[in-house]
Structures are given as structure tokens and as C-alpha cells.
Specification:
Largest sheet: 4 strands, parallel
Shape: elongated
Strand order of the largest sheet: 1-2-3-4
Radius of gyration: 18 Å
Number of strands: 6
Length: 187
């Protein structure tokens, strides 16, 4: 399938003009590309808000290369349907784990026998503690990265499921209010 990919840097006028042009092509789907490559998050949101009104409403809308859990929530609030991102795996390999309270990467978990996330039922959280993962990373054991990637991918799958469920239930606004800022926190 051929998709239209909106480009234009951080210039809303160029982005809007380009989106209007590719929307006229009547393609199966439309993507917003070239964001999340260093510009501030608020600029990314401004560009999404600028081009979204010109994206066909009956076609999938894809934000390329994004992002953090909070970015995903905020992009959905702005009309985006789906995403791709290396962040859950890349961050996991560097000992940054996503939780429903925020992200963790801190030596204070050296002796914490609790799961990575009390609200997570992934196989890693059910079986291993924060202290054990901290030890694995400190010992440069490859298992640390494998377990962390498993957890983060499970977290992202759960996040997108919860977003879909809240949209279906008409409670996305409440979900966004509770989690967008919280998931951007480092704990």
C-alpha cells in the first residue's frame, strides 16, 4: 500500500500545504513524518494540530517514529491512530523501564524487592524484582536487557489497549488527564 507521508520540518504552513496536496491523492493512509528527531515536544504537538484538519477522516493516521507513553496519549488526543517507535526496546537496553507511575532508572532501587511495576502483570514483573534487574545491569548480564525489553514491550501493548478501551468507553479524556503527565515523570 502506498501511503502519503507529510513532510515540511517545523513549518506549519509548509506542512499544511503538503498535507492538502497528498490528501488529494486519495491514498489508503496518511503519515506525519520527520518529527520526533530533536525538536521540542510542544512543536511536534503544534505540527500535528496544524495538519490534522487536512488529513482525510476516513483513513488511518500514522505518526512516524513516536514515542514516549505521554507522546502517544497526546497524539491520540490530536487525532493520530497509530505509531511506531524503537523507544521501548532502546530505552530498556539502557535500563530505563516504563511503569504506570512514570519511568524508572535509578540506583535507589538497588535493594527494592518489589516488582518493576505493581500495576503490571507481565511475566517479568510477576517473577523478578527491581533489585534483581538493577543487579543484572550492574553485572552487565545480557538477561537484564532481555527482561527489560520484554517488560517495556508489554507495557506499550497494555498502554495502547487501555487507550483503545478508554476511547471505546468514551473515557479517553479521563485517561489522558490521569496518565499523560504521570507517564512523563521519572520516579
Amino acid at each position: 500500500m502506498l501511503w502519503g507521508i507529510n513532510q515540511g520540518g517545523t513549518y506549519p504552513d509548509i506542512r499544511v500545504d503538503h498535507m492538502k496536496r497528498i490528501a488529494d491523492l486519495d491514498l489508503p493512509g496518511y503519515a506525519i513524518g520527520g518529527l520526533a528527531v530533536g525538536e521540542p515536544t510542544e512543536v511536534m504537538y503544534e505540527i500535528i494540530e496544524a495538519v490534522e484538519p487536512y488529513m482525510p477522516k476516513d483513513r488511518p493516521r500514522y505518526l512516524m517514529g513516536v514515542g514516549t507513553p505521554s507522546n502517544i496519549i497526546e497524539a491520540v488526543a490530536r487525532g493520530v491512530d497509530f505509531f511506531d517507535c524503537v523507544m521501548p526496546a532502546r530505552n530498556a537496553r539502557h535500563a530505563k523501564l516504563f511503569t504506570w507511575q512514570g519511568s524508572i532508572k535509578n540506583a535507589k532501587y538497588t535493594r527494592d524487592d518489589g516488582p518493576i511495576d505493581l500495576q503490571c502483570d507481565c511475566p517479568v514483573c510477576r517473577r523478578y524484582s527491581r533489585a534483581y534487574l538493577h543487579h543484572l545491569f550492574k553485572a552487565e548480564e545480557m538477561l537484564a536487557m532481555r527482561l527489560s525489553v520484554m517488560h517495556n514491550l508489554y507495557f506499550y501493548n497494555t498502554l495502547t489497549r487501555r487507550i483503545r478501551d478508554s476511547l471505546d468507553a468514551g473515557t479517553f479524556g479521563d485517561f489522558r488527564a490521569e496518565y499523560s503527565r504521570k507517564l512523563a515523570e521519572k520516579i
